[in-house]
Structures are given as C-alpha cells and as structure tokens.
Amino acid sequence: MKLIVGLGNPGKEYEKTRHNAGFMALDKLAAMIDARFVHHQFNAVIASLVVKQEKVILMKPQTYMNLSGEAVLAAVRYYKIPSQDILVLHDDLDLPVGKIRVRYQGSSGGQKGLKNILDLLETQDIKRIRIGIGKDPIIPVVDYVLGKIPAEQAALFDESLEKAAKAARASLILDFQEVMNRYNR
What we know:
Layout: E1 2-6, H1 21-32, E2 39-41, E3 44-51, E4 54-61, H2 68-79, E5 86-92, E6 100-103, H3 112-121, E7 127-132, H4 141-145, H5 154-171, H6 176-183
Helix pairs in contact: 1-5, 2-3, 5-6
C-alpha cells in the first residue's frame, strides 16, 4: 500500500495560496489517474485506487498545515504503512517558482507541515516532492505563503504543479531513484 499526501490548508480562503501547492499538485495527480476525493477519514479527504495491484491512497489532511502529521499518523497506523511507502507533496520557499525537487529523505527544511509528519512518524525517511514557491525578502513569511500566486507567475507555477503530479504518478510504477533522475533536472 502507498500513501501520497498533499499538504495545504482547508477552506476557500486558502484555495489558491502558495501554501496549498501540495493540495493543488495532488488534485492534478488525481485528475491524471482518474481518482476522486470522495471519502472523509483520518481528518482528511481521501481518494483510493489500485495501481499495479497495489492500493494507493491520496490524502489531503484537513487539520491545517502545521498539524498535517496527525492525519498521516492515523492512516499509517490504521493501514500499517511503512515510511518508505509514503510520499509528501509540499511547497518550498527555498526553491524558485517553477522548480521542483524529488527527495528520498531529509529534514523538513522549515516546512511546518512536513516537520509535523516527520516528528509524529519519528523518521526523516519520507519521500517528498518539494514545489518551489520562491520567497520575497520584503513580505513576512506567513503573509507570503498564505498569499496567492501573482498573475505573472501563474503559468510557471502551474507547470511546476503539473511536473510534481507527473513525478508522483511515476513513483507509483518506477523505482524512486529513477523518478529522481527524471524529475530533478
């Protein structure tokens, strides 16, 4: 069984914000593989499907970003999902808009939703796809991540969401090292 988690905040006011890059990329993945978010379980919106005879769960925690690990931990415990079968899609201030990075493991890099997941699962061995949102030295971080993508960056941002979704889809059928080789260019 595999668990793919998109990070973001629930609610209309957060829908198109930078911090919801994980939700947006997961929505693109769901559209690519014809999955529908119809279940509410583990304080999350869930879609499930079977890929190559393996159950796959797509999850959008509804706990707000900083408590994302609560929903992930509940699913991990219920389904007994090993950490190597978890993939998290999330925004990253340290990458410019339009870039993604696929990684096997590591620290949260300051991303509080990912930090909560790593802390609650007590491991840094979680695969992730980081989606660049850039940063602005003038705008406070909280205001920046909760801000919407400006029109002049919208196309580039959408390309990165598409690329993140394709990398996540590839992770369902390819070795993760191959996914890294293809998408970390």
